Amino acid sequence: MEVITITSQAYKTLESKLDIILEFVAAIKKEPEENLDNIWVNNYEVCTFLKISTKTLQRLRAANEISYSRIRGKMYYRMSEVQRLINEKVIRRSQEDLQDLIKNHRLYVKQRETVRANK
């Protein structure tokens, strides 16, 4: 084993460069792509983040333009269905609005998990 000695200034410079590399790697590291079929959102989330009314969503359901599931009286939609409506321009929103919906849904899920863990 070989021992190498360096000045404290050189060590601090090396350490700062390693921190920069670590930040860069963390920034480009992507989360694994989620399958949009596995994400379910409720009426409130869809209406709030896509800025549509509950009546508009009800009309889409009545016209069979969006598939949904009803569980204990609440409506749930697959994220892939919401994306399809945006892509087909049934709902005039951008992909940024969809990403905002996904991001806020994840935050909502984390909050629920935290509340359940604290009980």
Account of the protein in words:
There is one protein chain. With 119 residues, the chain is mainly α. The chain has a domain at 36-118: Orthogonal Bundle (Multidrug-efflux Transporter Regulator, Chain: A, Domain 2). The chain is built from 5 helices and 3 strands; from the N terminus they run αβααββαα. The protein has helices at 8-28, 43-50, 54-62, 79-87, 95-118; strands at 40-42, 69-71, 74-78. The protein has a 3-stranded antiparallel sheet with strand order 1-3-2. The termini are far apart. The model has no long low-confidence stretch (mean pLDDT 85).
N-to-C SSE string, H for helix and E for strand:
HEHHEEHH
Largest sheet: 3 strands, antiparallel
Distance between the termini: 53 Å
**CATH-defined architecture of the domain at 36-118:** Orthogonal Bundle
CATH class of the domain at 36-118: Mainly Alpha
Number of strands: 3
> What is the overall silhouette?
elongated
- Strand portion, in percent? 5-15%
Which fold name corresponds to the CATH topology of the domain at 36-118? Multidrug-efflux Transporter Regulator, Chain: A, Domain 2
The level of helicity is 55-70%
* Rg on CA atoms, Å: 23 Å
Mean pLDDT over all positions = 85
Spans with pLDDT under 50 lasting ≥5 residues?
none
Across the major sheet, the strand order is 1-3-2
Secondary-structure-based class equals mainly alpha
Count of alpha/pi helices = 5
